[in-house]
Amino acid sequence: MDSRIIVALDFPDAESAQACAKLLSPQSCKLKVGKELFTAEGPAFVETLVRRGFDVFLDLKFHDIPNTVSRACSAAANLGVWMLNVHALGGAAMMQAARDALGQGDDRALLVAVTVLTSLSDSDLQQIGIQESAAQAALRLAALAQVSGADGVVCSAHEATSIRDRFGDAFLRVTPGIRLTDDSADENKPDENKPDDQKRIMTPSRAVQNGASYLVVGRPVTRASDPPAVLRRIEQELTETGDIH
Fold it and tell me: What is the DSSP letter of 109?
């Protein structure tokens, strides 16, 4: 079974991340490496996870001139990652350059484009000059990403339905901001699992029902006393609602 769950290894160092990853298996989830961990530990850590058999989503959100992004994506793909991302706001030429850098093989890395960060509300967008709602901006940027060759987008689960309906199920929707029903990874640590800076959040089953292809889950798994149990709980929730088979 191809797991829909991507566990975000949002740790400051390899030791902490490895301690969590050792509790997980490539069959139960994929892993995401973001800016903090990558900056601290570099490409070698990503290659370690790949050698262990994990599908790795390299979440560095490249956003620069097309040539620079193209070279960065090529370097990332050489690490053996399963997926990487760019910012859709970088424009069509940048996204096309990123996609071209990944080649045409069936085993190439997937490219997804970030639409609107889940930390941003409609009022936040207005502050930076975007007068559309988050939903409208996400749909517009998803359209640009699709024509630019991206395999899908990173978007809130709140926007996944409209993106799926417009561009089809093959165009991926990777959704951060996933929280468990009780919004807590471990009932003994309630203060560590608040929605924090994620403003557009959703439960796993609701997100998949809304059209999410993959669910990015961080603290509800990584700060739990038993991360594998949380993954099993999420899979059970999806199974019970008919969202996985």
Answer: P
Q: Please tell me the predicted confidence (pLDDT) of residue 243.
A: 62
Is residue 214 within 8 A of residue 175, CB to CB? The reply is yes
What CATH class has 5-240?
alpha beta
- 3-state class (DSSP) for residue 179: coil
In whole angstroms, give the CA distance from residue 238 to residue 245.
9
d(CA 183, CA 194): 7
Identify whether the C-beta of residue 211 lies closer than 8 Å to the C-beta of residue 243: no
Tokens of 50: 């790949």
Q: Which portions of the chain are predicted below pLDDT 50?
A: 184-195, 245
Spatial distance between the Cα atoms of 221 and 156, rounded to a whole number of angstroms = 19
Q: pLDDT tens digits for 32-61?
A: 999 999 999 999 999 999 999 999 999 999
Residue 212's nearest CA partner among 147, 151, 140, 159 is 159
Q: How far apart are CA 174 and CA 32, in angstroms?
A: 12
pTM over 0.85: yes
pLDDT of residue 181: 73
Residues 240, 82: Cα–Cα separation, whole Å = 28
Question: Is 61 annotated as catalytic?
Answer: yes
What are the residue ranges spanned by the domains of the chain? 5-240
Q: What is the pLDDT of residues 112-150, one digit of tens each?
A: 999 999 889 999 999 999 999 999 999 999 999 999 999
Catalytic hit among 22, 32, 35, 61? 61
What distance lies between CA 61 and its chain's CA centroid? 10
